[in-house]
């Protein structure tokens, strides 16, 4: 069977990584790249740098990866859907829920694989955590809290921290808990002088009763990517920078040393850093996309799921503006 022909549009910070991984992947060939601003990272190699999605389609591709700015996702995605090209678009799916809905409708109408690049789902620590939650290792899940903080990335210009970074946490939280968001309450602030928010604190509740808490910003001098899932039997802490997963058991041994109890707690349980395989998340994401196109499995983040995530992100912004809890209607 011939390799699938892949086209990449957008050769910026993420595009260069997509190009590298596609070239490393079995069963696919990178045959065309496009970016109207050229190739700043020199990833094209022997390929011509095309200037538009129409030229990319004309190269005869089976699959496409879209890594252009968010505001262009709808235009590029609709052109690819119209041409019958399976597509992986970087997150968020689009700049608005209305645009996202048009993408969902276009790809579903053609029976195409439409995927969104919520890469955190493919982080080894979170993949392992999801399996352990499903296996009952935590018992009932009570809360999922995330912290995603760091300095401002120069690559972002057209959306704020909620749609850029916060969508990671919205998606992974619903995916880990296997339940959609029902309500959200949030506060945002803008401190960097840009038109979009650069810090958010949000508290939500999922349909299954799990409560959530999310701190996301572009204003911290340190970089932090943590997901903490607390439940009946203890807590899992996933660090998605290092892909480490640690389990903190509930306390079973009383702390007799009074001064130690003041900062270690009145009881202690075992703490275990789990040994897990650590494949590159972007490679795992591309393998899932390739296999979905081949009909072998279906664990991509679908465009409909990406749309649900975007709707929650917009509810976060609505809540911050109106200073009220926002109920999130089922799609």
From TrEMBL:
GO molecular function: nucleotide binding
Record domain Gfo/Idh/MocA-like oxidoreductase N-terminal: where: 4-118
Pfam family, one: GFO_IDH_MocA_C3
Keywords for the protein's UniProt record, in alphabetical order: NAD
Superkingdom, taxonomy of origin: Bacteria
Coiled coil: none
Domain GFO/IDH/MocA-like oxidoreductase: 127-236
Protein name: Putative oxidoreductase
Organism listed in the record: Arthrobacter globiformis (strain ATCC 8010 / DSM 20124 / JCM 1332 / NBRC 12137 / NCIMB 8907 / NRRL B-2979 / 168)
Lineage of producing organism: Bacteria, Bacillati, Actinomycetota, Actinomycetes, Micrococcales
């Amino acid at each position: 069977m011939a390799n699938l022909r892949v086209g990449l549009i957008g050769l910026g910070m993420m595009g260069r990584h997509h190009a590298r991984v596609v070239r490393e992947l079995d069963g696919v060939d990178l045959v065309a790249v496009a970016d109207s601003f050229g190739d700043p990272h020199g990833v094209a190699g022997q390929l011509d740098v095309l200037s538009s999605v129409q030229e990319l389609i004309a190269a005869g591709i089976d699959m496409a990866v879209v890594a252009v700015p968010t505001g262009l996702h709808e235009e590029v995605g609709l052109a690819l859907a119209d041409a019958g090209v399976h597509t992986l678009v970087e997150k968020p799916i689009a700049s608005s829920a209305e645009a996202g809905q048009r993408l969902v409708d276009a790809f579903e109408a053609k029976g195409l694989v439409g995927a969104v690049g919520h890469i955190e789902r493919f982080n080894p620590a979170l993949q392992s955590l999801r399996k352990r939650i499903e296996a009952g290792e935590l018992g009932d899940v009570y809360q999922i809290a995330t912290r995603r903080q760091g300095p401002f990335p120069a690559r972002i210009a057209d959306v704020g921290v909620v749609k850029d970074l916060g969508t990671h946490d919205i998606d992974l939280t619903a995916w880990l808990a296997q339940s959609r968001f029902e309500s959200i309450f949030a506060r945002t602030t803008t401190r960097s002088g840009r038109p979009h928010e650069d810090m958010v604190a949000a508290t939500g509740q999922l349909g299954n009763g799990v409560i959530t808490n999310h701190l996301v910003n572009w204003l911290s001098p340190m970089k932090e990517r943590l997901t903490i899932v607390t439940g009946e039997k203890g807590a899992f802490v996933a660090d998605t920078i290092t892909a480490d997963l640690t389990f903190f058991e509930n306390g079973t041994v009383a702390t007799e040393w009074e001064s130690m109890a003041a900062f270690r707690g009145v009881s202690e349980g075992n703490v275990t850093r789990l040994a897990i395989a650590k494949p590159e998340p972007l490679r795992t994401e591309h393998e899932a996309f390739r296999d979905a196109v081949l009909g072998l499995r279906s664990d991509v983040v679908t465009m409909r799921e990406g749309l649900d995530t975007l709707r929650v992100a917009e509810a976060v912004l609505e809540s911050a503006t109106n200073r009220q809890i926002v109920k999130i209607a089922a799609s």
